[in-house]
């Protein structure tokens, strides 16, 4: 293992960079179908302390667990190692293939984004690493381009066929707002969170490993649905091109499971747009109802929830002052997100912790969400 040495450190000291995790308010598994999503960048971040090196080596050390690794920027045909280093090395590979001239660097990583919880710790790592290496090399990069290259790293190097949402919101988040993202055009619209409400995240402590297969299988189901619908609908390229009415008109072309997968995505796209209208109209009750409908669709049609997550949503919806609650993230564990009236939030959080512990024996962490900014340079830790 290569460690930092004095000759490789910068006399100016390290520079600091931070990229946020995210919570998706509504719009699950729509991003890789060219659809619509409504995430919020969190104030929980992955932070990098970065110093240039005189050689072509990148060293990475984790403050969370002390793990470290290193690699050479000129390594020919790098192959995945099937560990967390792939998220870093994959970003480097894609940046260099895109023509960015990176320099050797010593990186120290720290994060308070929970891993395996559906809050996009992987995207926060990818974006923070990519941004720090580009800026350390004295280059500039458009944030949408960085998001696309980080997504490509996860798709092609890590092997997780995620959509663009996680990396995009980590790059382009806007403090105090959710961001409606059109995942086809990458156009955006900022949407204010209603006054007097709070976004509360609850971690089920059930951890998933999306790259192991189920997430990719859902994507394959959607792609199969598009291919089977083409003879009747013409040259559609994604489920974004299918309306709820068209899907119902041609459901006989689809096997039952494929139909239900498609129905979730098509209906979820419609829910996202309705949710934006609800927020713009300052109607948290309508927004909350759409969250509930989204969860039911993920549970019954997409089949990506689990008993613990369903239990959390059931407990949440029984509390006073709760507008809506749903699973957030890729699924198979992770977190729920709830929209709660400010004055009810403290009682809500206590009831959620007590109820979930009584049902499962697990004490779940609760996170009050503050909508933060996207990736940025920060003052490094002293």
From TrEMBL:
Cellular localization per UniProt: Cytoplasm
Main localization of the protein described in the UniProt heading: cytoplasm
Catalyzed reactions: alpha-D-galactose + ATP = alpha-D-galactose 1-phosphate + ADP + H(+)
Top-level enzyme category: transferase
Gene3D superfamilies: 3.30.230.10, GHMP kinase, C-terminal domain
GO cellular component, one term: cytosol
Chain sites annotated for binding substrate: 28-31, 215
Record InterPro entries: Galactokinase, Galactokinase_bac, Galactokinase_CS, GalKase_N, GHMP_kinase_C_dom, GHMP_kinase_C_sf, GHMP_kinase_N_dom, GHMP_knse_ATP-bd_CS
Pathway: Carbohydrate metabolism; galactose metabolism
GO BP term (any one): galactose metabolic process
Presence of keyword Membrane: no
UniProt domain Galactokinase N-terminal: residue ranges: 15-50
Binding site for ATP: 62, 116-122
PANTHER family in UniProt: GALACTOKINASE-RELATED (PTHR10457:SF7), MEVALONATE KINASE/GALACTOKINASE (PTHR10457)
Name this polypeptide is given: Galactokinase
Protein's organism: Consotaella salsifontis
